[in-house]
């Protein structure tokens, strides 16, 4: 399940952004003091500096630094973190991360200016520039993450926007043992995370305090949210239309290919192929969740098309509502089958649209092999 994560550096007085930022001093006057413990770790030396000599600390700070890079499938950062403000008029400026940035994932750069073309960098990083709402950018990033986490980086304005919107599942603060007295503050006008998140603390050998906020409702990434996804799949089968049709219209033939196969144990099945009829397929995955599918046939034209609406549940939680159209067209030597679908994905399943398309491809592969 995709989770939304933030790692931030802050001072004892809650200052997260530094002052004195300029092209010659892009990180500001106090950045080195805020990040001293992180910059001393072996993980930073290896992952950011490319230093494989084994230099750097290996204690508590390093364990958090290593966790920062684990399980991330996409990143969202502000324009300042990319460096757009440094040379805003230069269309060839590729940021200050060098030719091989340390991300290795799609990175979505939030900007209020006209979007730029995407930048493909060495090492797998691709910068995409987006000017939309943070919720829309998050939807795109979560889909690109492919089930892994989305990490939200700086600057402080970007992090605060996601925190104020209640979109953050995991927040990790590295509190440096210093008082800055200047710079932007993190907590002003933010919701009380200690009421919605579990809070833990750990003090490192460097004196840095690591504070983590983990959302109490762990399975739920965003409490009330929906997303739309649509796809069309076309397959040519070397059988006549009437035979391909029977793979859907005949119960025993449908049972030969429909479902999760050996990966799950069926617990309920119903088949009623007629307009207004209802199909049910429920199965429990081995060491996994209980999946339930309920479909209603809304239109059937024999040997031509089938239209259904269907809902899915996972462990009793409503996952999605979808409209699916199946078309059967004769072609020389066989049948052209087209599956078109539009789905609404709910709450914690809002980023599962690509998985639905992948699952449907798997069903069509099983149909081909039946």
Short key terms for the protein model shown above:
9-stranded mixed beta sheet, 370 residues, alpha/beta, ASHA1/2-like_C
Which structural class matches the secondary elements? alpha/beta
User: Average pLDDT value?
Assistant: 87
Proportion of helical residues: 10-25%
State the fourth-level CATH superfamily of the largest domain. Dihydrofolate Reductase, subunit A
How many discrete structural domains?
A: 2
Radius of gyration: 25 Å
Cα shape: elongated
Distance between the first and last residues' Cα: 32 Å
Query: CATH fold name of the largest domain, please?
Result: Dihydrofolate Reductase, subunit A
Return the CATH architecture of the largest domain.
Answer: 3-Layer(aba) Sandwich
User: Order of SSEs, N→C?
Assistant: EHHHHEHEEEHEHEHEEEHHEEEEEEH
**Beta content:** 25-35%
Q: Quickly count the helices.
A: 11
Describe the structure.
One of its GO terms (molecular function) is 5-amino-6-(5-phosphoribosylamino)uracil reductase activity. Residues 4-194 form the Bacterial bifunctional deaminase-reductase C-terminal domain. Belongs to the AHA1 family. The chain is an alpha/beta fold. The protein has 11 helices and 16 strands. It has helices at 31-34, 36-39, 42-47, 60-69, 79-82, 134-145, 156-164, 193-196, 241-249, 251-255, 353-369, and strands at residues 4-10, 72-78, 106-110, 119-120, 126-130, 149-152, 170-175, 197-203, 209-215, 226-237, 264-270, 278-285, 290-301, 305-314, 317-331, 334-346. The strands form 2 sheets. It has a 9-stranded mixed β-sheet. It is elongated, with a radius of gyration of 25 Å.
């Amino acid at each position: 399940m995709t989770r939304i994560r933030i790692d931030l550096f802050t001072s004892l007085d809650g200052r997260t952004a530094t002052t004195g930022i300029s092209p010659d001093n892009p990180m500001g006057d106090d950045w080195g003091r805020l990040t001293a413990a992180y910059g001393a770790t072996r993980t930073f030396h290896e992952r950011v500096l490319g230093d494989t000599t084994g230099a750097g600390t290996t204690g508590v700070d390093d364990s958090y630094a290593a966790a920062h890079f684990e399980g991330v499938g996409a990143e969202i950062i502000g324009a300042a973190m990319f460096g757009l403000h440094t040379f805003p008029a230069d269309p060839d400026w590729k940021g200050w991360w060098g030719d091989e940035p340390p991300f290795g994932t799609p990175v979505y750069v939030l900007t209020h200016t006209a979007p730029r073309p995407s930048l493909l960098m060495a090492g797998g990083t691709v910068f995409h520039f987006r000017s939309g709402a943070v919720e829309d950018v998050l939807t795109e990033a979560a889909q690109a993450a492919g089930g892994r986490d989305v990490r939200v980086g700086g600057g402080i304005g970007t992090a605060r926007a996601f925190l104020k919107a209640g979109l953050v599942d995991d927040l990790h603060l590295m509190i440096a043992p210093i008082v800055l007295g200047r710079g932007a503050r993190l907590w002003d006008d933010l919701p009380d995370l200690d009421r919605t998140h579990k809070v833990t603390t750990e003090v490192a050998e460097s004196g840095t305090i690591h504070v983590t906020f983990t959302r109490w409702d762990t399975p739920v990434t965003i409490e009330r949210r929906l997303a739309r996804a649509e796809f069309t799949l076309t397959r040519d089968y070397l059988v006549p239309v009437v035979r391909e049709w029977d793979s859907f219209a005949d119960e025993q033939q449908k049972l030969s290919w429909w479902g999760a196969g050996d990966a799950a144990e069926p617990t309920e099945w119903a088949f009623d192929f007629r307009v207004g009829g209802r199909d049910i397929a429920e199965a429990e995955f081995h060491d996994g969740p209980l999946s339930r599918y309920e479909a209603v046939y809304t239109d059937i034209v024999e040997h031509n098309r089938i239209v259904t609406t269907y809902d899915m549940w996972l462990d009793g939680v409503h996952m999605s509502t979808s409209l699916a159209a199946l078309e059967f067209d004769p072609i020389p030597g066989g049948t052209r089958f087209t599956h078109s679908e539009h789905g609404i994905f709910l709450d914690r399943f809002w980023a599962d649209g690509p998985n639905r398309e992948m699952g449907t491809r798997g069903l069509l592969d099983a149909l081909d092999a039946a």
